[in-house]
């Protein structure tokens, strides 16, 4: 058995890389460049024919630094066992699907030798293959490939890639990718015992500045035999990152609260004007939301079958259809059931609860009890980061949409004849009737308007919740809480109430849990109503007069 001194792989590969890089630089400056502008890698590729693990690892490092477009094909071929050589001529080839090609040039070989032998690989060579593949990605012309490679190096923290990472940092021009490369270099240096202490201290600062959970894991992985100064710096970095993460966790919960508040606003805004004008406790309001979601499902099904290229416009098409359909259903309910129960809120509660059961069963009979698939347009897919805050596009668009609906409804109530009549009936119903306003017609139109808004709320909710017959049941109680807390019939109160309860709910969840958090909010609202029975923003209306 041949004895071999134990040599650390990182040190060996860096030592082997130095003469190859010198030869490569000499070849480049000596004019050994092909007509296509690619470096001549023939001398590097020839080393694979030496049938030596050391020469193979040496050649891999040189290929990674060569900048040749053919280098990736050679490295991939070696990793897949398709790199071969002729022992007689020392020529190196790649077995491809179309035949055999020259490894250095990629040119097809018409008559390959019959004595081709695979280039051997051991564990050391395989590590060098992985390092070379990562290095070639780090130097790839495609910025996306370089960014992915930097992230991969950060996770692997392979010391073999350090020279290539440093070379990539020197060449990188995209700030975000350069920062990712510097973080990858810092991740390598933290665990590299033979690196200068000053560089490792700077690396700890760089990882601390990253400020995420991976940074904490990396700082905790500092070797136990590291100098005390580095251990102290790492501990301080961990404490700083943990404090930073607590801040971002609160910010993330506030964002979730805003998102939940926008959903509550959409679900409650129609109920606010219905309850405020008519004094009707409409337990079927959630089913209007559900019908709007199923309208979206039907629109998307038609588009998928007839005009798939319109899918990104499916929500824009579904919005007016959902509004019209649910508004007509709401007017039908008002004309056939509710109009006979004015002034009797308990009876309206029971009657609309029965209507909600009928609508749920009707939807189950037509569509079935299972959830239905509603897709998201491309512009609502994905997410982006703000610091450690993750913001999804669908939630962001729903917040924007909820505010747009709110201000559009506010404009209708303030600037249109219908809005004037609605406000008149809300403030003094008998006086409005005496002035010639047809209060029955206003009741029907108001109920239709509130139901229509619930329908377009269902379009939005179809993007973040399951579309099923029970969709509306999850929002009806919270909607009443928002309306009562904000002030019956007051839109600004509904806006403030929705976002206040949404944020409070998400801030309570980490400490009290989802169920107990809702119970605490309910207790708070009960106590609040004891002090302010008309809510945050009191509005004199029909319910108050009665």
Automatic annotation (TrEMBL):
Superkingdom of source: Bacteria
Keywords attached to this entry: Amino-acid transport, Cell membrane, Membrane, Transmembrane, Transmembrane helix, Transport
Annotated InterPro entries: ABC_transp_permease, ABC_UrtB_bac, BCAA_transport_permease
Membrane topology field: Multi-pass membrane protein
GO biological process: amino acid transport
Keyword Membrane applies: yes
Compartments, as annotated in UniProt: Cell membrane
GO cellular component, one term: plasma membrane
Gene Ontology MF terms: transmembrane transporter activity
Segments passing through the bilayer: 254-281, 313-333, 345-363, 396-413, 480-504, 510-529
Family statement: Belongs to the binding-protein-dependent transport system permease family. LivHM subfamily.
Protein name: Urea ABC transporter permease subunit UrtB
């Amino acid at each position: 058995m041949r004895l071999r001194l134990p040599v650390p792989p990182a040190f060996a590969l860096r030592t082997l890389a130095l003469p190859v890089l010198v030869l490569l630089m000499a070849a480049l400056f000596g004019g050994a460049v092909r007509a296509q502008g690619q470096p001549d890698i023939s001398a590097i590729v020839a080393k694979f024919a030496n049938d030596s693990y050391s020469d193979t690892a040496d050649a891999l490092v040189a290929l990674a630094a060569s900048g040749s477009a053919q280098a990736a094909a050679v490295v991939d071929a070696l990793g897949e066992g398709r790199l071969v050589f002729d022992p007689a001529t020392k020529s190196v080839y790649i077995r491809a699907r179309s035949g055999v090609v020259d490894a250095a040039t990629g040119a097809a070989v018409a008559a390959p030798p019959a004595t081709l032998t695979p280039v051997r690989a051991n564990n050391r060579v395989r590590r060098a293959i992985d390092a070379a593949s990562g290095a070639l990605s780090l130097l790839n012309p495609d910025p996306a490939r370089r960014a992915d490679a930097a992230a991969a190096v950060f996770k692997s923290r392979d010391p073999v890639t350090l020279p290539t990472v440093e070379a990539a940092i020197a060449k990188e021009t995209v700030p975000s990718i350069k920062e990712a490369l510097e973080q990858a270099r810092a991740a390598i240096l933290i665990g590299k015992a033979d690196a200068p202490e000053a560089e490792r201290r700077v690396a700890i600062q760089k990882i601390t500045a990253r400020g995420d959970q991976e940074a904490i894991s990396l700082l905790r992985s500092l070797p136990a035999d590291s100098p005390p100064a580095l251990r102290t710096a790492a501990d301080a970095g961990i404490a700083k990152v943990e404090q930073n993460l607590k801040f971002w966790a609160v910010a993330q919960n506030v964002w979730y609260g805003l998102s939940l508040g926008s959903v509550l606003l959409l679900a409650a805004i129609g109920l606010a004007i219905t309850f405020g004008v008519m004094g009707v406790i409409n337990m079927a309001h959630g089913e209007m939301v559900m019908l709007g979601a199923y309208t979206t499902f039907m629109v998307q099904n038609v588009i998928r079958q007839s005009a798939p290229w319109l899918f990104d416009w499916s929500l824009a098409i579904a919005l007016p259809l959902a509004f019209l359909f649910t508004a007509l259903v709401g007017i039908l309910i008002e004309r056939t059931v509710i109009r006979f129960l004015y002034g009797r809120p308990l009876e309206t509660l029971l009657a609309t609860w029965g209507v909600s059961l009928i609508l749920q069963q009707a939807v189950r009979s037509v569509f079935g009890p299972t959830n239905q698939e509603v897709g998201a347009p491309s512009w609502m897919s994905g997410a982006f980061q703000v610091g450690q805050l993750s913001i999804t596009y669908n939630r962001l668009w729903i917040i924007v949409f909820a505010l747009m609906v709110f201000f559009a409804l506010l404009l209708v109530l303030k600037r249109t004849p219908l809005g004037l009549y609605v406000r008149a009936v809300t403030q003094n119903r008998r006086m409005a009737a005496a002035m010639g306003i047809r209060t029955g017609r206003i009741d029907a139109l108001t109920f239709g308007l509130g139901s229509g808004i619930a329908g377009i709320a269902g379009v939005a909710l179809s993007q973040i919740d399951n579309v099923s017959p029970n969709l509306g049941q999850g929002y009806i109680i919270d909607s009443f809480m928002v309306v009562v807390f904000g002030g019956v019939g007051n839109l600004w109160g509904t806006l403030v109430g929705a976002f206040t309860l949404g944020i409070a709910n998400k801030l309570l969840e980490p400490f009290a849990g989802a169920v107990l958090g809702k119970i605490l909010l309910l207790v708070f609202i009960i106590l609040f109503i004891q002090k302010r029975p008309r809510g945050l923003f009191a509005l004199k209306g029909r319910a108050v007069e009665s």
